Amino acid sequence: MAEIVEKGDWIQFDPTEKQKEPTIIKWQQDLGNREEPYIALPYSVKDKEAGGSLFIQKALADSFFKKCQKDEDSNPLVSGGYKIQVDEAFQYGQNNEKTLRFLVYHNKANKPYQHRFIETTAFSNIGNKIIAVGGAAAPQWAAILQKGADLLKGFIGDYLRDF
Questions:
Q1: Close Cβ partners of 151 (under 8 Å, ≥ 6 residues apart)
Q2: Ranges of H-type helices in 91-156
Q3: How far apart are CA 43 and CA 11, in angstroms?
């Protein structure tokens, strides 16, 4: 079984990626259209061969990065990076097989379906970043990106989950 991020795990990422253009996530909620900018970062899980995408609501980015610690890991992929422990402040989405998981740090009153993040990930530049991320998760993401729209079938209709 593939390793995935769990509550209590430490994730590591490159903070310079936050300078990139935010990803706009759009959804419908309470009979209205909603949208929020999110910072999308690839992450890896410390002491596991797992990784994925981390989406941080731009309005909460300052509070998120204040919670982070400098990562002193010798891994060149995250050298000079940050780390944070996954806790109840995060939500997640995953495929039906529970082999791929992405994280979302945002106002939990926002209720976008999982596929809103997956569509964005699969069909934007962050998808290319995921392919480039080291670790065992990269080949899995690369294979999924090749499937394109078929990816969405495993996510449609599910809200993000709490840890």
A1: 118, 122, 144, 145
A2: 114-122, 125-132, 137-147
A3: 6
Rounded Cα distance between 9 and 29, Å, is 31
What is the crossing angle of helices 125-132 and 137-147, to 10°? 150
Phi then psi dihedrals of residue 16, to 5 deg: -70, -20
Domain residue spans of the chain: 10-162
49, 137 Cβ separation under 8 angstroms: yes
Sign of CA dihedral 96, 97, 98, 102: negative
Sign of CA dihedral 98, 44, 27, 143: negative
DSSP three-state, residue 42? strand
pLDDT single digits (tens) 19-61: 778 989 988 888 889 999 999 999 999 888 888 999 999 999 9
SS3 of the chain: helix, strand, coil, percent, to 5 = 30, 30, 35
Indicate the pTM of the whole model: 0.76
